[in-house]
Automatic annotation (TrEMBL), chain A:
Ranges of residues in domain Lipid/polyisoprenoid-binding YceI-like: 55-177
Gene3D superfamilies (alphabetical): Lipid/polyisoprenoid-binding, YceI-like
Name used for this protein in its record: YceI-like domain-containing protein
Top-level taxon of the source organism: Bacteria
Coiled-coil portions: none
InterPro entries according to UniProt: Lipid/polyisoprenoid-bd_YceI (IPR007372), TTHA0802/YceI-like_sf (IPR036761)
UniProtKB/TrEMBL annotation, chain B:
Domain DUF5777: 53-310
Species: Algoriphagus boseongensis
Pfam families per record: DUF5777
Descriptive protein name: DUF5777 domain-containing protein
Length: 185, 321
């Protein structure tokens, strides 16, 4: 048993080192906007502290953000979003991890349509997810844009009947992430 | 020893390769590594605790909460007559009410100013509240300070609820000041508690045996039953000297500690607070030091506070959800 634990620890350490030894593209100031529109109400919130890392060698991609970093113009709404809907103390982050399907050499500047296949975790619920977007490379920096719809219901985000007409069934999520080349190690 | 270690790591590497090639762990782990690196980067910022209490007021007293910048709260508070005042005579107290109307505005996310007018002793009040420290995943409590001022605009020589006659010889005597520190902690999603050391200074008291400086300690808390329904309770222990009063006036000391219990119901932009309390006054000078009712005598007042929040922040087209 002890050995097994050691192996697992070692394994993890080895993996981290492998990732650290490579060139990555990363940021901690990506932008993700959520938007809900119904005849009764338009709700918008912006998160400007989205973290993202892309490993150009493996085309692996990870995006993570804190739920509490979403800023609403109405702070009461923000409080409800965190307290009643997203339960951000229990589930502080949302993330996506996956792989970009296309093989792209980021060193070649250009605009590429990309598809990331992986899994998304929101409100503690993880589901397989595919995101389509655009990637603009300028050699040492990347820009990723994407837009998708997400149903709160699918991630067990409960919306009480009292406000059901004010919150859209599908929330539009728009991302705008600029990544810089990072040489770790 | 060193050779053994090397052998061990060789063995481990072997195991790793074996396990890895069979289970495709490297592929899955590479993404997890990116995520854990992100996690590490993001964990540098503290996560602040949100919504320790539903509103800036618990029942009669205030809470550690302030309101957000450019947000306005409108408070409508009622305390009806005593529930033991009879059915025919007073419809269990609902025939009469003390009212306080109040406004508070967030200058910053941590600093608010407020004003109100109570029909109880026709009193105007002004106050300011500032959040000094915030609870987060690295700090255990929230600390908020408050300072307030009130002016009693009753005619000189009116009879107070305690039965004493109050005469003012100048306007300064109508003033009362109060300061409070709120030390609060959200223990978990449901339970929040706060301690409230309080000092109320009355420029004029009804009898020399009553100190102008009224010290008190408040304790308050809430327990969330559901997402929108919360139980709350509040007790203010006032440091008084009843014997001195009795010796001086030959009357029993008229004031009691304030105790209130209630529920909060939240519906988007409104918070409804319904409660039972032995205090009819809704500002600190009244409920901390001048609560005439007592639970033992069933001098219980039914009351409610309604808060409505408006946002004046740019981009806030709608006021609630």
């Amino acid at each position: 048993m002890k050995n097994l634990i050691r192996i697992l620890v070692f394994l993890t350490a080895f993996q981290v080192n492998e990732a650290l030894g490579q060139t990555l593209y990363g940021t901690s100031t990506g932008e993700v906007k959520i938007y809900s529109d119904t005849p009764l109400e338009t709700i918008e919130a912006l998160n400007q502290k989205v973290g993202c890392l892309v490993n150009p060698a493996t085309m692996d991609l990870a995006v993570q953000m804190k739920i509490t970093d979403f800023v609403f113009p109405n702070k009461l709404m923000q409080e409800h979003f965190n307290e009643n809907y997203m339960e951000s103390e229990k589930y502080p982050t949302a993330n996506f991890k996956g792989k970009i399907k296309e093989q792209i050499d980021f060193k070649v500047p250009g605009t590429y349509p990309v598809t990331a296949v992986g899994s998304m975790t929101i409100h503690g619920v993880t589901k397989p997810f595919t995101v389509k977007g655009n990637l603009v490379s300028s050699g040492n920096s990347l820009k990723i844009d994407f837009k998708f719809l997400v149903k709160p219901e699918e991630y067990k985000v409960e919306i009480p009947s009292l406000v059901i007409t004010k919150i859209a069934e599908e929330i539009e999520v728009t991302g705008n992430i600029s990544l810089q080349e990072r040489k770790t190690n | 020893m060193r050779i053994q270690k090397n052998q061990f790591s060789l063995f481990l590497t072997g195991c790793f390769l074996l396990v890895g090639s069979v289970l495709f762990i490297p592929k899955a782990n590479a993404q997890d590594d990116l995520l854990s690196m992100l996690e590490e980067e993001q964990s540098k910022d503290p996560i602040y605790t949100l919504a320790t209490f539903k509103a800036t007021r618990l029942i009669n007293g205030q809470t550690i909460e302030t309101i957000s910048k450019n947000h306005l709260n409108f408070w409508i508070s009622h305390r009806f007559g005593a529930v033991n005042s009879g059915f025919l005579a007073n419809f269990f107290g609902l025939d009469e009410a003390r009212i306080r109307l109040g406004l508070e505005y967030g200058l910053t996310d941590k600093w608010l100013i407020g004003a109100g007018r109570s029909s109880q002793e026709k009193t105007y009040d002004l106050y300011t509240k500032y959040k000094l420290l915030r609870q987060s995943d690295r700090f255990p409590i929230t600390l908020t300070g408050m300072a307030g001022w009130g002016i009693n605009t009753m005619e000189s020589g009116y009879v107070m609820e305690s039965g004493s006659v109050m005469k003012f010889s100048n306007n300064l005597e109508r003033y009362t000041y109060w300061g409070q520190a709120f030390i609060g902690r959200k223990f978990n999603e449901k339970l929040s508690l706060q301690l409230v050391p309080t000092l109320v200074h009355y420029n004029k008291v009804e009898d020399p045996s009553i100190s102008n400086d009224q010290w008190a300690l408040g304790i308050g808390g809430r327990y969330k039953l559901t997402k929108r329904f919360t139980l709350s309770g509040e007790y203010y222990y006032a440091v008084t000297d009843p014997i001195a009063y009795e010796v001086s006036t030959r009357n029993p000391y008229p004031y009691h500690n304030s105790f209130s219990i209630g529920v909060d119901i939240e519906t988007g932009g409104h918070v409804f607070q319904l409660h039972f309390t032995n205090s009819r006054g809704m500002i600190e000078k009244q409920f901390v030091g001048q609560t005439v009712g007592s639970w033992e005598n069933a001098d219980i007042f039914y009351g409610f506070n309604i808060s409505r929040t408006f946002s004046f922040e740019k981009g806030a087209k709608n006021k609630d959800k």
